[in-house]
Amino acid sequence: MSDTTSAALRSDGRKATELRSIRFQNNIAPYATGSTLIEWGMTRVICGISIEESVPRWMKEQKVPGGWITAEYSMLPYSTLTRKPRDISKGKLDGRSQEIQRLIGRSMRAALDLQKLGPRTVWVDCDVLQADGGTRTAAITGAYVALGLAVKKLMAQGLLKENPLLLGIAAVSVGMVKEQPLLDLCYTEDVAAEVDMNLVMNSKGEFIECQGTGEKAPFSETHLASMLSLGKNGIQQLLQMQQLAIAS
Q1: Distance between CA atoms of 142 and 138, rounded to whole angstroms?
Q2: I want to staple 29 with a disulfide (CB 3.0 to 4.6 A). Which of 22, 35, 103, 191 is the partner?
Q3: Which domains, ranges and CATH numbers included, belong to the chain?
Q4: What whole-number distance in Å separates Cα of residue 98 and Cα of residue 25?
């Protein structure tokens, strides 16, 4: 596909292989051990890290050594075009939020050596301020930056003897829109996509999660290969941005 066709296909003028603009605003939450506001296109997510100097009861009962990482995810009521009621008003966490926070937790646990973390719990809180597609991938990508900042702070304070970070972790969406594979779907593309996929990968090029669904039609192995190739390239760019953000 030519660049002209790619640009014409997308509402924001991007090529099929291009990410939206991404910016990290670190230390957005002063009382968090590490925090960042990730601005990914029109999607904005605050990611904060809190440290609890204890582990869950099940770890104590089973005498599991090391620490733990858990996550919470929420979309603020004004983050979408129509007001989204808070989960507390419904008396329970909705299924989508529960799925995403579990995904964030799994992704961050893949980033850390839990033995080197020691007997403490890392809480990862991701709050969506504005949603325009890719909130889960932005939350994971931003959470890793916040985690990296938190680890730097804990090491500077002498609370960690060794750096527990193992590998970089980032996430991105890919999809098929009008039979064309696209990287990093915005909301209008996500709604129109025949196939929607989210990839979570580490800096070794290994998959942590691969969520793909034929929303409107089945997809071929060729389409899958195209989307995976786009996703891998996008992940590599994100990993570089994360390292720059943590170093700054």
Answers
A1: 6
A2: 35
A3: 20-247 (3.30.230.70)
A4: 26
Q: Which residues pair with 209 in a beta bridge?
A: 200
Only one residue has tokens 């770890």, namely 59
pLDDT in tens, the chain (248 residues): 334 334 456 878 899 999 999 999 999 999 999 999 999 999 999 999 999 999 999 999 999 999 999 999 999 999 988 898 888 777 777 888 899 999 999 999 999 999 999 999 999 999 999 999 999 999 999 999 999 999 999 999 999 999 999 999 999 999 999 889 999 999 999 999 999 999 999 999 999 999 998 888 888 999 999 999 999 999 999 999 999 999 98
**Lookup: tokens for 220:** 């071929």
**Residue 181 token pair:** 């594979």
Compute φ and ψ for 92, nearest 5 degrees. Answer: -160, 160
C-alpha 90/C-alpha 172 separation (Å) is: 30
Q: What is the DSSP letter of 43?
A: E
Q: Which of 52, 47, 225 is closest to 128 using CA atoms?
A: 47
Tracing tokens 């100097």 back to the chain, one arrives at 53
222 vs 241: CA distance, rounded Å: 29
